Amino acid sequence: SRWCLITSHKLYSSVYDPNEKTFEKLLIANRGEIACRVIKTCKKMGIKTVAIHSDVDANAVHVKMADESVCVGPAPTSKSYLNMDAIMEVIRKTGAQAVSLNVSICCSFLSSLSLQTSEGVTFIGPDTHAIQAMGDKIESKLLAKNAKVNTIPGFDGVVKDADEAVRIAREIGYPVMIKASAGGGGKGMRIAWDDEETREGFRFSSQEAASSFGDDRLLIEKFIDNPRHIEIQVLADKHGNALWLNERECSIQRRNQKVVEEAPSTFLDPETRRAMGEQAVALAKAVKYSSAGTVEFLVDSSKNFYFLEMNTRLQVEHPVTECITGLDLVQEMIRVAKGYPLRHKQADIPINGWAVECRVYAEDPYKSFGLPSIGKLSQYQEPLHVPSVRVDSGIQQGSDISIYYDPMISKLITYGSNRAEALKRMEEALDNYVIRGVAHNISLLREVIVHPRFVQGDISTKFLPEVYPDGFKGHKLTDLERRELLATAVSLYVAEQLRSQQFLGTPRIPIAKSKRSSWELSVRLGDGIYPVAVSKDGSSFSVEVDGMKLNVTSEWNLASPLLSVTIDGTQRTIQRISRNASGETSIQFLGTVYKLQILTKVAAELSKYMPEKAAEDTSSILRSPMPGTVVAVSVKPGDMVSEGQEICVIEAMKMQNSMIAAKTGKV
């Protein structure tokens, strides 16, 4: 069946014909979740795989999954995953017949793909002409115009320097978008609203572009304010056939990088969907495209759409398309590369159900909607026990999240017969996702998918700054939710106290008083202190908070990272993140981690005598909000600096960030 089948790890189905010969061995020049994704399909198709890796990725999941693996260099991508000479040598040594590339491909690598003819190696993807044409945003825009595809007004040439950037921006009219010609993934991209921001944007965008893509050329075009970002998945073969596989809604973004995607879009009607699909196919045919690719559009409130760019690779968000169409896009790419024609016609492509994807990142969502976090995953458990859940990941418990690569932990996908069902399953999946050791963005993802505007489909690329103008602060508890959290926390506290009094497996003569059945406690949550009374009845607790009684029931499996609790008939899944002997505990409730302190009534009365630790004075310190590499220092000891002046530039996960002085002073 082509329809979505539910299994433990995936939400797509396709027919694998053992008699349809493709390749015996395929090299995957990538890492992380996308490398693991390709390996899974190769195993089903009977294709042996070769993984490449950097020295720090020697124990990565994709290395363990592959049949063979070869180290191609040190951690920086330019010296390993983009080391063209080393990769070509691996292809020769291992005898790989095909190579799958989903990293940012530079032209020097494409020239190396002359091996396709000289040594019989096939590239899984479009030919070099299509990649070069669509990978260059300037050329792709001109090709799109010639193919009668709607395009954004702007300057169609290469911007030489900051002065020219300012002149062009004034001619187009602010605001403008400055972006790398060879860019993608939000890197090398800046929005400028005036001349000063244009100069700064030119500098940072060109530096990021050179670092990420080996190409510092920039273009400038009109910035369409408050649009939707909707893309069309295309699939084409070498025989002139091309299909559009419906759309993906990708408007929830931070720093021009997607956070939540879904398919289909709530916004498109059948006519607009068809028009966008037909223009996407026209562009693919214009460049003789042959593989899976994505044509991205900006769509305004009147459903006018404009070509943004074409990505000549398998996109991060491809699973939602697989869910609603039942196609395995990796399999289709391999078949096309081997020369087989497409098996489907446009009329065969369905929209079956609804799929939502959340990008789970090792990021602190309370800092600019997500600044990178590094560390070791001390505990990791994917929510695969939740029905209709697919998780595409390239990490496991014990994996390291480093400064060298994208901080993505996984892609969490849920599927339902309709949007409401898919969103409800996503809510449950996020609550059941266990991640310890690094900061993560589960709280932000959960708040987005339950927000009334998102549920109604009222979204744009400005959703996050509009909904959270002062930054993301976590879930704001209602009075009922606050009482539920307090009741759950004290019930968990008492359950632990009772367990600590038990002697298991050893008969002892009781010398202590009989077990208590009621407790008077004091709980600090935020700026509030709440008296709470608890009484036990079997496995349930009756908790009185704010003069109201709540009944809390659970199996109280205190060894599990997940705890299912029923509060007055409402089921909640919570996670206790930490606790200590002074009564402080952290509980993940409704996606957000809350810090509480639970004390007995006597201890609470005595706590006023405990001195509080003075907060550190950081006004004279410039502290980076994220781990990264110092790529530029703009001052020297003895310099006088003013508030807001740039001190240095930090590069983290290929994004450059200017660190500025918080006050006037001497370095």
Automatic annotation (TrEMBL):
Keyword annotations: ATP-binding, Biotin, Ligase, Lipid degradation, Lipid metabolism, Magnesium, Manganese, Metal-binding, Nucleotide-binding, Transit peptide
Cofactor or coenzyme needed: biotin
Domain Lipoyl-binding: 613-667
Top class in the EC scheme: ligase
Pfam families xrefs: Biotin_carb_C (PF02785), Biotin_carb_N (PF00289), Biotin_lipoyl (PF00364), CPSase_L_D2 (PF02786), PCC_BT (PF18140)
InterPro entries on file: ATP-grasp, ATP_grasp_subdomain_1, BC-like_N, Biotin_BS, Biotin_carboxylase_complex, Biotin_carboxylation_dom, Biotin_COase_C, Biotin_lipoyl
Reactions performed catalytically: butanoyl-CoA + hydrogencarbonate + ATP = (2S)-ethylmalonyl-CoA + ADP + phosphate + H(+); propanoyl-CoA + hydrogencarbonate + ATP = (S)-methylmalonyl-CoA + ADP + phosphate + H(+)
GO molecular function, a single term: metal ion binding
GO biological process, one term: lipid catabolic process
E.C. number: 6.4.1.3
Record carries keyword Lipid metabolism: yes
Domain Biotin carboxylation intervals: 22-469
Keyword Aminoacyl-tRNA synthetase part of the UniProt annotation: no
Domain ATP-grasp, residue spans: 141-338
Name of this protein: Propionyl-CoA carboxylase alpha chain, mitochondrial
Organism of provenance: Platysteira castanea
Phylogenetic classification of the source organism: Eukaryota, Metazoa, Chordata, Craniata, Vertebrata
